[in-house]
Every structure is written in C-alpha cells, then in structure tokens.
C-alpha cells in the first residue's frame, strides 16, 4: 500500500509551511486532489534584484527514493520559455498540481520540509 498523502492535502501543507516560514505561496494549477502529483515553482531573491525562478520535481532514483530536484531554471532573457514549459506540462498532465513558492533559500526549505535536508 502506498503511504503517500493525497495531493490536495500535500499542496495545502506546502502552502502553510511556506507561509509559516515567512514566504508566500499560491496554486498555479490545481490537479487531482487524490492522485495528482506536485511540482514546485520557487522564486527567491532580494527585493529589487532579479528573482531566481526554478521548477522542482520529485525524480525517482534507482534505490526507490524520490528526492526533490530542480529540473529547470528560468532564463532571465527568455522568461516565456519557462512559462510555456509549465503550460505544456499541465496540458499533458491535468492531474499535476503546480505551486508557486516565494521563499528564501528554496533548496534548504524544500529539503527541510520534505525531510531530505
């Protein structure tokens, strides 16, 4: 039996944890509440500076783990390419949840929340 949380519940947990850490979170695409998967778009940076925007996904490993991995980074010169990619992903997988998290040190936050850090 899979011990995985329903996607809708996990999405709410990510949002609450982000806000509790002083960040901001919102749902960019709402997937299936039970069987969906989650992808995270993180924005981090200091005010007035160009924000680092990355897409994080769980990638299966040979040992069975599924760690969060930054799979794509937005090119500041071509922001639309990143947005188009997210659009294609949600069109191909309507069950996918896409959450946007504006948080300091996204890698550390994700690792800590997911128990990987």
Task: Explain what the structure shows.
By secondary structure, the protein is α+β, with helices and mostly antiparallel strands. It contains three helices and five strands. The protein has a five-stranded mixed sheet, with helices on both faces. A hairpin with a 7-residue loop joins β2 (about 40-45) and β3. It starts with 6 loop residues before the first helix and ends with a helix. About 25% of the residues are buried. The model has no long low-confidence stretch (mean pLDDT about 90).
Write a brief structural summary:
The protein has helices spanning 7-20, 79-92, 106-113; strands at 24-29, 38-44, 52-58, 68-73, 97-102. By secondary structure, the chain is α+β, with helices and mostly antiparallel strands. The longest helix has 14 residues, at 7-20.
How are the secondary structure elements laid out?
Blueprint: H1 7-20, E1 24-29, E2 38-44, E3 52-58, E4 68-73, H2 79-92, E5 97-102, H3 106-113
Parallel strand pairs: 2-5
Antiparallel strand pairs: 1-5, 2-3, 3-4
How would you describe this structure in keywords?
3 helices, globular, 27% strand, alpha+beta, hypothetical protein tt1805, 117 residues, 5-stranded mixed beta sheet
Q: CATH homologous superfamily?
A: Protein of unknown function (DUF1491)
Shape: globular
Rg, Å, rounded: 14 Å
Total helical segments: 3
Give, in order, the helices and strands.
HEEEEHEH
The residue-averaged pLDDT reads 91
Structural class: alpha+beta
């Amino acid at each position: 039996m899979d011990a995985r949380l329903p996607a809708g519940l996990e999405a709410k947990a990510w949002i609450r944890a982000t806000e509790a850490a002083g960040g901001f979170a919102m749902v960019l695409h709402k997937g299936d509440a039970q069987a969906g998967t989650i992808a995270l778009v993180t924005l981090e940076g200091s005010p007035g500076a160009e924000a680092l925007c990355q897409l994080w996904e769980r990638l299966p490993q040979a040992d069975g783990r599924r760690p969060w991995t930054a799979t794509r980074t937005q090119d500041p010169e071509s922001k639309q390419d990143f947005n188009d990619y997210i659009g294609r992903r949600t069109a191909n997988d309507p069950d996918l949840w896409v959450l946007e998290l504006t948080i300091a040190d996204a890698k550390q936050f994700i690792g800590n929340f997911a128990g990987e850090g």
